[in-house]
From TrEMBL:
This is RADX protein. PANTHER family: RPA-RELATED PROTEIN RADX. One of its GO terms (molecular function) is single-stranded DNA binding. It comes from the Eukaryota. Gene3D superfamilies: Nucleic acid-binding proteins.
Length: 303
């Protein structure tokens, strides 16, 4: 059928009610959001954001309500979608935005694609990767992997991706989302090394929409974390990384077929790991326990 592209949509959306189908690749994926409230009777109050792109640029796509449990886990970073009977709306101004791996890519920020069960009922098709044709001009997923030796020079709130061997993973802890709130964030601390520094990556991993991965992080697994934010803890200048709304985490058993396996820094890490003695690394690993971070000063005077 006749296709449109994201650039053409942005120019013509106000003058149209029905839109031609779209062929896009998912570049980023947010965590699943629950927005239910006791006074509102909604069956499936869920929402998830994706950043999708074609040859003309990148745009946000929103998956609404009962489409979330049906489609969220099938829509992975790198997945190619054919969309028909979708809606176009002005962008929600307060949503978070991931940092694109390709800084040259054009971003269409004024509108977003809405996928709904009705008004209109969206038709979603996943195109298997082996059927994707080069002439469609869909961009590849690009990453911003850094090594541990580069981390200390990065500015606060910088976005990056990391890969490392887990040497420590703490127990799951909870923090209130807001003071006096009954809602909690679930998170755990982890350390990962990549051979480029004596220091590990210190990772604050919040439970994203991947409970199966979050619960299975353990020492000696290869851990990949995408869209992490650099946090600088003053006055000690201790640097750690924390998850963002668009972060994805992967461990052994989940790496196969992921787009990042082609990345040069990932390949370098695998080569370094193959040169290491597993028995030596196991001796350095720790699991569980309380992890006070940032560490308190060693005297009351400094405190």
């Amino acid at each position: 059928s006749k296709l449109t592209n994201l650039g053409h949509l942005e120019m013509t959306w106000r003058s149209r009610v029905h839109f031609h189908p779209l062929l896009v690749r998912i570049l980023h994926k947010s965590r699943l959001k629950y927005y239910g409230k006791p006074e509102k009777k909604m069956d499936m109050p869920y929402q998830a954001y994706f950043e999708v792109a074609d040859g003309s640029g990148m745009m946000s796509m929103v998956l609404w309500n009962s489409l979330c449990p049906e489609w969220y886990h099938s829509m992975k970073v790198g997945t190619v979608l054919l969309l028909a009977k979708y809606a176009i709306k002005s962008s929600y101004p307060f949503k978070t935005h991931p940092t694109p791996g390709d800084s040259q890519m054009k971003r269409f920020a004024t509108i977003e694609i809405c996928l709904n069960v009705r008004d209109p009922p969206t038709e979603i098709s996943i195109i298997p990767e082996e059927m994707v044709k080069p002439e469609w001009g869909l961009p590849e997923v690009k990453y911003r992997f850094i090594s541990r030796s580069e981390l200390d020079d990065l500015p606060h709130n910088h976005s990056c991706d990391v890969i490392g061997l887990v040497t420590f993973v703490g127990r799951a802890e909870r923090a209130r989302k807001r003071e006096h709130s009954e809602d909690f964030w679930l998170y755990r601390w982890a350390h990962a090394i990549d051979g480029t520094s004596d220091q590990p990556f210190i990772l604050e991993l919040f439970a994203t929409s991947q409970p199966d991965v979050f619960e299975r992080i353990h020492p000696m697994t290869y851990l990949v974390c995408t869209q992490m934010r650099v946090m600088t803890e003053n006055p000690s200048r201790t640097v750690y990384l924390t998850t963002s709304n668009e972060s994805q985490i992967f461990i052994k058993g989940w790496h196969k077929g992921q787009p990042y396996t082609k990345d040069a820094k990932v390949k370098n890490f695998i080569q370094w790991m193959e040169s290491q003695s597993e028995a030596d690394q196991i001796k350095k690993t720790v699991i569980g326990g309380y992890y006070p971070f940032p560490r308190p000063p060693d005297s009351f005077l400094k405190y």
